[in-house]
Amino acid sequence: VIDEGVFQRLVSEAGASTRGQLELTSQLLKGAEALASVRTSDVEVGTTPKDEVYRDGHVVLYRYRPLVGRPLSPPLLITYALINRYYMIDLQPDRSLVRGLLRLGLDVYVLDWGYATRADRWATLDDYVMTYIADCCEVIRARHDVEKINVLGICQGGALSLCYAALHPENIANLIVMITPVDFDADTGLISRFARSLNVDQLVDAFGNIPKEFINYGFLMRSPFQQNVRKYADLLDIVDDREKLLNFLRMEKWLFDSPDHPGEVFRKWIKDFYQENKLIKGTLEIDGVGVALSQLRMPILNLYGTQDDIIEPASSVALERHVGTRDYTARAFPVGHIGMYVSSKVQRDLPATIAEWLNQRAL
Amino acid sequence: MPEDAGSLTAIAEWQRFARPWIEQAQTWGFPLDSPSLGAAREFNERWRNAMSAWLDVTHARTEYSAVLIDAWRGVLEGLTREMLGRTREGPSAQHPRAVLSVSVDLADRIFGELFRSPRFVEAQRALLDAVAASRVREGELIEDMASNGHLATRRELDEVYRRLDELRREIRALKKAQSLTVAAAGADAPAKQPARKRSA
């Protein structure tokens, strides 16, 4: 014998639960249909027009086509990380740091590291700094007939830019670093802990180049269920909106479009930067020459995210204590690592911050 | 008898004949059962090393999984408690999306704590070390097989790439030295044309 009230409640709950299941099934079917309708070629990234101006193997220097008649001189070279692809700075027209900078009259170059192959197994971090970045700087200086250029280094590319600028300050007019690790000991995040725990010699000796899956694993560890489960469940909410769906798929493309990391570069990056924190200690050597951050006497703009859990703010802001310039500016944005590229508020403020800062120093 | 049927019979006979060797090979018994003499001695040793390294991976993976299982148990306990509490809130709290949301938050929190623990870091490091060691041993075996099959081995390719990298650096250094020499000679010579204007 069941109490009438309890019975009614059970029937009501069962009905609601069944309705919920039906709604979910219907959404899943709609989602599958929407995804099937999107072709790979529909997911366009990095669409801002640009021209190849220099190539060394699969490392390419592009110049974005300026949007104003007389763009700001000297030009700006953007050096991105070797992890993931540079087109994050131009993911889609309304989320594009590059477009923002071009609209504000800047002359923008970007260094595309390409996809490392087995042939890059022995390329060193020193090569990336003193060959690739150095050569691209030289190309831009020659093309524009200028002694110095502006550099914007992002994430790992920021650390590489710091090294180059410290070794060749005579070539850099203004240096901007964005979400860049500097004091690796100050970073207590999961990525940092993971990097510090690695037996990197054994990994590089065994794998040669470090597989992209390994790199992605490190990033997914930060919130595995959010990134592997909820994100896809939430996709059901936007399947009716093709634009939002394409935005989602662009981000997905970028997230999983990680090149393998050149083996010797990875060895030095993990050992010298993460494990021994040599950049901040002044013991780092590139091509046998010591990298002293005190040599950074050019104006510096340091941009970081206060909620960044890949490069924690404490690691980035440490730069101020070690540089040799008095013209140092730090700007914090209330976002995480990825938010620096895609947050609509940051997309509005970040290009303006950079352009204004550069314009003030161009006078 | 039709031709096809004859072929099938022949295949069946061959399979019956080859089965003992196939089964041995499938369990890696075949190479290890050969006498440890001459060339087979080193080959067998490489097989044993590879097998041993593979067993180390299995062991490390089990340890790693055991660490993760503790976290999964925590998630299930927490989720059960949460869902019992939410039954009072009515059916909307039982919607699959709502349950998923609670589960994800809980799982990320518990796994996040786990990933920061020394126990996990140690298990992860042991697994990665074992995988890397196994990969090296596996590579040694494949090197043997590739060279016996007249194929270029990874080691040979790596040597070529390494040499190319060294040559590239040498060429670059030579070019740099040459341009410095040319520049020095130009500086000594009387100026014929105005220097190129350079400005920041």
Largest interface: A-B, 42 and 42 residues
The helix/strand series of chain B, from N terminus to C terminus, equals HHHHHH
The best one-word shape of chain A is globular
Largest sheet of chain A: 8 strands, mixed
Overall body shape of chain B: flat
Low-pLDDT stretches of chain B: 192-200
Distance between the termini of chain A: 89 Å
The percentage helix of chain A is 40-55%
Structural class of chain A: alpha/beta
* Helix content range of chain B: over 70%
Unreliable residue stretches of chain A: none
Structural class of chain B: mainly alpha
Instruction: Report the β-strand fraction of chain A as a percent range.
Output: 15-25%
Number of strands of chain B: 0
Let me know the largest β-sheet of chain B. none
Order of helices and strands of chain A: HEEEEEHEHEHEHHHHHHHEEEHEHH
Number of helices in the DSSP assignment of chain A:
14
Structure description:
The complex is a heterodimer of chains A (363) and B (200). Chain A has 363 residues and is of the alpha/beta class. Chain A is 46% helix and 15% strand. Chain A has 14 helices and twelve strands. Chain A has helices at 4-37, 97-103, 125-144, 156-167, 190-197, 200-207, 212-220, 224-234, 242-255, 263-275, 278-281, 313-317, 339-342, 344-362, and strands at residues 50-56, 59-64, 76-79, 90-92, 95-96, 108-112, 149-154, 172-178, 285-286, 289-290, 300-305, 328-333. An eight-stranded mixed sheet of chain A has the order 1-2-6-3-7-8-11-12, sandwiched between helices. In chain A, helix 12 links the parallel strand 11 and strand 12. By secondary structure, chain B is mostly helical. Chain B has six helices and no strands. The A-B interface holds A 12-13, 16-17, 20-21, 24, 73-74, 118-119, 121-123, 127, 131, 145-148, 173, 190, 193-194, 197-199, 202-203, 205-208, 221-226, 229-230, 233 and B 90-92, 94-97, 100-101, 103-104, 107-108, 111-112, 115-116, 121, 124-125, 128-129, 131-133, 135-136, 139, 154, 157-158, 161-162, 164-165, 169, 172, 196-200.
